[in-house]
Amino acid sequence: MKQLFLKAVAILALVVAIDVAVGSASRYVCTHLSDKQSQIGSIQQSLLRKTGDVLVLGASCAKYHYNPQILGDSLQLTVQNSGVGGMNMIYCDLVLQAYLERCRPQCVVVDIYGQLDPGEGRLPRVKPFYGISQPVTSYYDRETDWQQRLKLCSALYRYNGTFDLLFRHLLNAPNTTNGYAVKAGAVARFDTVVVRNLKIDTVKVCHLENIVALCRQHDIRLVFVLSPRRHHDVEQEAWLADVCQHYSIPLINELHEPVYYSRDGLFFDDSHLSGPGATIFSQRVGSRLKAILGP
Amino acid sequence: MVVNSINFWLFFVIVLVPYFLCFRGKGGQNLWLLLASYVFYGWADWRILPLLVAVTAVFYALGLAIEHNNHLRPRRASHLTTLGVVLGLGILFYFKYFGFFVTEMAALFTALSLPHSLRSLNIVMPIGISFFTFKLMGYVIEVHRESIRPTRDIVEFGTFVAFFPTILSGPIDRAGTFLPQLAERRRFGENNFVEGLKRVLWGMFLKMCIADVIAPWTDAVFGNYAHHNATSILVAAVLYLIQLYTDFCGFSEMAIGVARMMGLRVAENFNRPFMAKNVADYWRRWHMSLTTWITDYVFLTLNVSLRNWGQWGVYVATLVNLIVIGVWHGANWTYFWFGVYHGLLLVATTSLDKRRKKFEKNHRLKDNQLYAWSRRLLTFSFFAFGSVLFRATSMSDFLGTLARLPQGFSTLYTEEFSSIILYAFPAIALVFLREWAAEYRRDIHFLHAHRTWVRLVSIALMISYILYAGQLEGQSFIYFQF
Predict the structure, then answer these.
(1) ipTM, two decimals
(2) Which of A290, B13, B117, B343 is deepest in the core (most CB within 10 A)?
(3) Tell me: the pLDDT tens digits for A116-136?
(4) Every domain of chain A and the residues it spans
(5) Nearest to A167 among B193, B418, B467 (CB)
């Protein structure tokens, strides 16, 4: 029995040693990533580094639709795109909080479609920044259960799956263009489809309200945008219009604009614009934002 | 409450400590285990718990009645055994197949333009029903055959039926080996405990570092096969077979390990199936607790009944045996055809066996390693192809997937594939190395090395690898649905 106990202690000590070693190395790499277009690079830049006058938040639609160069030229302001594929409103809230620790943007643009859908998405990919980014740390400490917090004590768990993201970052990620990425390739034009599938995650609504509150507190102009796509959830659209009216938030609704659906090659797939589509979108949103922000 | 969750391990500690420390006799231990098993099962779905308790009571009584009548009234004993088997099959049929049967009948009537009022039924299938009904049927048959004596202790019998590590997904224990263990008090044994922990660790490694890492990619390919080319589909078929093995073997290892820590040995389920050199050999190594059950109670019975048919009788019995194995998995035509496919493969293997042996003798191939590995590769390919049928949700899905193959080879679908290369491939290599070593009795042991420090370092590295590279937000086990 004594031997069993000693062996258990020895195994535990070894695991802790590996945990500390891997944790320290991963932490160093994650905080010293070069500015590239990979997923972990974008998350790191958004949570720890980037600043700008206009902050674009959202998931893949934000990443592939908002060209900071075009928006910046239109607004005569610096624009940072913090969209990351598979993310949701919780991530937007965390990025805004992290951003406010470094600077105060003049305007926050949220590509809102699908951001309040149920499901975790790729949010766990911010786990490597637990203990590094204050908003991420507070989020996990405040909003996750004891099991998750217990697991987060282990650096191996925190950096679980990070090797793959780092590998892709180091191997083949192109250099950044302020968070924007072009979807190469395009599909022929298509007819839009109306769907009715309103599912709202109440936790994410709380984070949406937090974003509204933060923007009011710091006197930041908040704008919501609905990007074009094939499937139009009319119930979600109506619900979002109500939210915007309730909080007096301007809504730029590009969902029904015929310009995107009238010719071939502007969409990469059902939900994402191609490079030319993103250019048109950025120009249109830029001019609408200019009108909203004023001189 | 899945075995690879923190909740399960808290539950297990709460069960294990009093199990060894508080009970001085086997009665208390068994009662405690039975209560724990019912809590565990009720946690999964409390609505089905009364069914489990009821069938346990009925089969307990049947076992005693069969033994009582075995010599006094053999015909009545046979009838009671038949009643037990019919009851077991009836429960299985109602919960697992009745809805499917009604839907198919309705489709048939509609196709024949016959009037009907059949509607689809939505019957909730109890978790683990295929496993505990097989245990119960096996019990009454064994009592009738007088291979075992029925237990008079209902707590002991209930523990055998509901034993929590195995009730959800097997292995399917036999009363003849399990009940005698419950008839004695279990004492804490360091060897059992350590061996059990090692098996749990190995099971977690298989499940979390291989099966769950591969699963999102194979789901993406098979779930959206119309958009994938032959390269992706063939790679997915190979990976799905590995996923299926590591998922189910992972669960079995954990179940065996947990039981072992409590001083109980349950049936083994896998014996290095990827080292099999032909289809028959593969089935002897794959899901052994099910295949031996069906061989003992279906194949042998059929074989005896069809003995007048000579070799054809063996072929028919083999085909039926494999169809039963296929259909056991669920109510879907894909499982039926999965059984037919493997049945035909097995018949072909059996019928060609003499010729193969002669060919090997003539060409002195018996000890040729290249030949042996070619056979293993061929067997693996047959099963990888069969796994596409197993994975398909319908026959049209399966045919649709096959229809993609003539479209030609092209670039592999690589979305998220890097995690398979980085995390799953090293783990798969380790599994193959371990199985190869065990097959050839080479002195390579990871968790059972002679030197203590090698064992300790191996365990620490394996825990670290699971934490760093494993899918820790755990997906459900594939075999839970059966």
Answers:
(1) 0.84
(2) B343
(3) 888 877 888 899 999 999 999
(4) 2-293
(5) B418
